[in-house]
Amino acid sequence: xxxxxxxxxxxxxxxxxxxxxxxxxxxxxxxxxxxxxxxxxxxxxxxxxxxxxxxxxxxxxxxxxxxxxxxxxxxxxxxxxxxxxxxxxxxxxxxxxxxxxxxxxxxxxxxxxxxxxxxxxxxxxxxxxxxxxxxxxxxxxxxxxxxxxxxxxxxxxxxxxxxxxxxxxxxxxxxxxxxxxxxxxxxxxxxxxxxxxxxxxxxxxxxxxxxxxxxxxxxxxxxxxxxxxxxxxxxxxxxxxxxxxxxxxxxxxx
Length: 254
Fold this sequence. Notes:
By secondary structure, the chain is of the alpha/beta class. It folds into two domains: 2-56, no CATH class; 68-253, Ribonuclease H-like superfamily/Ribonuclease H (Nucleotidyltransferase, domain 5). Helix content is 44%, strand content 14%.
């Protein structure tokens, strides 16, 4: 049921559309019912939310998500989908980024508060959060998608989760439910990886002039810098992704 609720997460945010709002209300009530072990009621509420969402055909879901974008030129590219993710930390400012060969990209900044659920494995957790950030850019990650990471420890966890070790977590990572009642990011990622053996997670050497890895690294750095600097990160990110994807798609064939 958690996976079903997670798929409806976009409706939880306030909406002007009455149908979208009703779906969101049903999801919130389902999460509350689940917290009190009223699993039957929770399942019925999720059924209601799914019916409302399906009947509305997702018409009012926002086309633009903060921190995400797509270079439409590559949206219809044929061939296997390949993506890369990365994370960056300096001091108390962090950032994550991803890029996919279909033009999708994302960057997200982070400055931990007084209570940080990351624990003592901040960089590793961020590398894995970047993978979750990528995969949730899709309603369902495409079959056979390849995700490149330059962190071998992160790759190890991804492979362990695919192998059924969903309980394996980085040292110190807080497993308590988050404020919205949802499972922690890495718990959801572990469940997703375990349910999708068709996804390929592979290592790529960092700073070796691999276009997708370099782009993901640049997006993560840009997100980190945005914590303390003021600039139009979305415009810069779009231009950066466009340039790197040109290298990825066009340069090898030239």
